[in-house]
Amino acid sequence: MKKICLLFTVFLSFSLQAQDKFVPAPDAPGKWSYQFYTEPEKGGYRSQQNYALSSEQIKVFRTKMDEVAEALHKNPVLLAPLGFEPTVQGSIWSDVWAIRYKTELLSKSRVLGEVVLRFCPLFRNAQGSTRKNCIEVEHADVMINSARHTTTNWENFSGLELSEKLILSDEPQVAFIRPAIVKKWENGVTAYENNLIIISRKPDYWIHVTAGQMFDLQIRYWTDFEKKEGNSLILDMILKDRDRFTREELALPAYASFESAGKVTVIPNQQPWLRFNPAYFDPALTRTAVQLIAIRTLTNAFYQENPSTGVDYTAHFNFVRGLDPGLWLSLLD
After folding, report:
1. Which helix (H) or strand (E) holds 238?
2. HSE of 226 in the Cβ direction (CA atoms, 13 Å)?
3. Model confidence at 192: pLDDT above 50
4. Which of 51, 83, 133, 200 stands 20 to 30 A from 102 (CA)?
5. SS3 for 232?
6. E strand spans, the chain
7. DSSP secondary-structure letter at 209?
8. 43 torsion bin: left (phi>0), alpha (psi -120 to 50), beta (else)
């Protein structure tokens, strides 16, 4: 009798587990949701208090973020989602670690924003209950007014992360190689191969770095390295490399070359060294004006077929193909 009871208990346990097991539900209708989030105390990445904004300024910028979220919502893939839920969170954002050495910059600088769209797959159990998973899923990140997020491959020669101080300075503390364009619309919206789409009314958000500037950055960096580590090998190589250039050549735009220590040539190619234009943002506009938008997303959707069968990846992929560049450009002040 005890054996029968034990077998029945085991069978019942497995039956209940089977009923509670959630499996992908690609036909389940999803719901759009958007919320604004701010950390309760000053100092975090997503604390609106970092900028010392008035209540009216916060209201203005939050309204603009709501408009960004609504632009996401109007995408055909998100209007009637199936198999996933578009779960969106907006925050007034700041790179607090990059500017930790001079936090008062935030009380004077333009306001940055972040709107994260997560493609959360839906799951259903045998009883018909559904739940969503938003952990480690596909997502698109919309960054507002962030110079740092216009590219992904900063070559850092300053020993510091890119910050407001560096962005506002005329000195090119950081540089990067221009990513290839995968799609460019007539209104100026551009998609790049590094999974970024830039929305700007001005084409000059990036400018050239000269060969001399590139060498100056590297020499300063490796001079500091020599003082700390007592090793001048790389510094000597870069100094020797710079000596091959004339004064006139050092004033020319720099292009990437990986055949020398300084990675610099003045012979034009498809990989110019660039930096963010310190004169890009219009100081006459308010701190809460939206002047630049960068979307980190799947730009491979513009030149290849969907390589995945995952619900969240497929939704993200089709979302990119449904982007309306005119709608996004209208969000800029």
Report:
1. helix 233-242
2. 13
3. yes
4. 200
5. coil
6. 23-24, 33-36, 84-93, 112-124, 130-132, 139-144, 155-156, 174-177, 181-184, 190-192, 196-199, 206-208, 255-256, 264-265, 273-276, 293-296
7. -
8. left
What are the φ and ψ backbone dihedral angles of 66, each rounded to 5 degrees?
A: -60, -40
| pLDDT tens digits for range 55-76 | 999 999 999 999 999 999 999 9
* Backbone phi and psi for residue 297, each to the nearest 5 degrees, phi listed first: -155, -170
Whole-prediction pTM value? Answer: 0.87
Answer yes or no: is pLDDT of 160 > 50. no
Estimate to the nearest angstrom the gap between the alpha carbon of 120 and the chain centroid.
19
d(CA 206, CA 186): 18
If one compares 18 and 174, the residue with the highest pLDDT of the two is 174
In this predicted structure, the answer to whether residue 321 has a pLDDT above a threshold of 60 is yes
Tokens standing for residue 100: 């930790």
Give the tokens for residue 325: 């560049």
